[in-house]
Write a structure and sequence with these properties.
five-stranded parallel β-sheet; 2 domains; four-stranded mixed β-sheet; 27% helix; Rossmann fold; 423 residues; 25 strands
Length: 423
């Protein structure tokens, strides 16, 4: 389909004025929508339904389609460079920020993704004749997450189908029941699916796109050993989803990277090791009321992530610039220690935070989630073989449930862990 059809397809889900719609969990959505001067808020929370004094109308998803006139035969075609969507970041280092995209941002994001991971149209000649089924991507990420929104555009561009899950069913059950050929997962979902699906995935599943942050080594090993068609990636809300992705059939060594830069994106590493990105998928800016802040610095968006590109052109992400700290004059990147811990047998998740120290300034303390529960006895000796002594945590504690995100796209509560580590 042409770009106009894609705009109409996604606009049919988001409404005639998708730039006015915000998807965000919890009652915080009303405050966020009011701050962005939104006209409509779609929510399943019955306590928020109605209209408030600011003029913000809240509607349940089904009622919104009826109210908005979703059955109109032709919602109209709009230029692809017009303002299209506002998507909130997950607030890695502060309050969530609204990112403004154009339809062109989403379109070029989908083009690059589909070039790496092609989708078969639902109405291709082979599909219609019954020779093989069309592709369908399970809507496993929420639409307030850029990864969920990207699923709609990818499928619309390719003519593939979106499999909308039953919100009360498990991910494993929906993967079986929906006939999905592709699915997008964050680390928490991958962990749950590995527990629920003991063995290969259904043969029809040809792509498992992984993103949303670092993936523990153990999860990658387990999925790869079962023959799952994994694709690791690196992306951001600002870049309308993926920037880099590994290709089909990537070996485990390649899956430990974030893959190569996809078409319609540009990527480079600056002198300080920060990842810079650009291209037609880069957002219009950060929205704050009527103000749009341009995210570009000399034409590039500084991501705040550190990394390097290897000889094969694959991106390796080291961590966040704002998480690095100094201990006794040495730079420590928490993500490096986390990765070393997650390579140890039985540790499925690790988070490292700095704590004040009179002698060294700050020292690392780790929290882990193990298969057996508790903390492995031999963690210190095992880390000594992988890390210099100044990077070995002073202590390792069990990762509390309170710090683990309960919604897709949310981040580990590192502030809570810092308080626990100092206690």
């Amino acid at each position: 389909p042409g770009s106009g059809a894609i705009i109409n397809a996604v606009g049919g889900v988001l409404g005639r004025e998708p730039e006015r719609l915000l998807g965000k969990p919890s009652a915080e959505a009303r405050r966020a929508a009011q701050r962005m001067e939104a006209q409509v808020l779609i929510t399943r929370d019955s306590t928020l339904l109605g209209e408030d004094e600011s003029g913000l109308a809240t509607r349940a998803p089904g009622r919104f389609v009826e109210w908005e006139g979703g059955g109109a035969p032709n919602p109209g075609v709009q230029p692809i460079h017009r303002r299209a969507t506002l998507v909130f970041t997950s607030g890695t280092t502060g309050p969530p920020t609204a990112i403004l995209h154009s339809w062109a941002n989403h379109l070029y994001s989908a083009k690059g993704s589909n070039a790496n991971l092609p989708l078969r149209p639902e109405r291709s000649e082979e599909v219609v004749s019954g020779l093989r089924p069309g592709d369908r991507w399970l809507l496993s990420l929420p639409l307030y997450h850029v990864g969920g929104l990207a699923i709609l555009v990818r499928c619309a561009l390719a003519g593939a189908a979106v499999a909308v899950p039953d919100p009360d069913a498990s991910l494993s059950a929906m993967l079986d029941a929906s006939g999905a050929t592709h699915v997008s997962l964050v680390a928490t979902q991958l962990r749950r699916l590995l527990v629920a699906q003991d063995g290969p995935l259904p043969r029809r599943v040809r792509g498992v796109l992984l993103g949303g942050g670092p993936l523990p080594e153990g999860l990658l090993r387990r999925g790869h050993a079962r023959g799952w068609p994994l694709h690791t990636s690196y992306g951001s809300t600002e870049m309308a989803s993926q920037v880099t992705t590994t290709p089909p059939g990537a070996p485990l060594a390649a899956l430990r990277t974030a893959g190569r830069c996809l078409p319609h994106r540009r990527l480079r590493i600056d002198d300080d090791g920060q990842i810079l990105v650009a291209g037609p998928t880069l957002c219009l800016g950060r929205a704050d009321g009527d103000q749009i802040q341009n995210p570009r610095v000399d034409g590039w968006f500084p991501t705040g992530d550190l990394g390097h590109i290897d000889a094969q052109g694959r991106l390796h992400v080291r961590g966040r610039t704002d998480r690095q700290f100094v201990s006794g004059g040495e730079n420590i990147q928490p993500e490096e220690i986390e990765a070393a811990l997650e390579r140890l047998d039985g540790i499925g998740r690790a988070v490292v935070v700095p704590v004040p120290d009179e002698e060294y300034g700050r020292r690392p303390v780790a929290f882990v989630r193990s298969d057996e529960g508790g903390v492995p006895d031999d963690w210190r000796d095992a880390l000594a073989a992988a890390l210099p002594s100044f990077k070995i945590p002073d202590a390792v504690h069990e990762l509390p449930d309170a710090a683990i995100p309960t919604a897709v796209g949310m981040k580990v509560d590192r502030a809570l862990l810092r308080r626990r580590a100092r206690a």
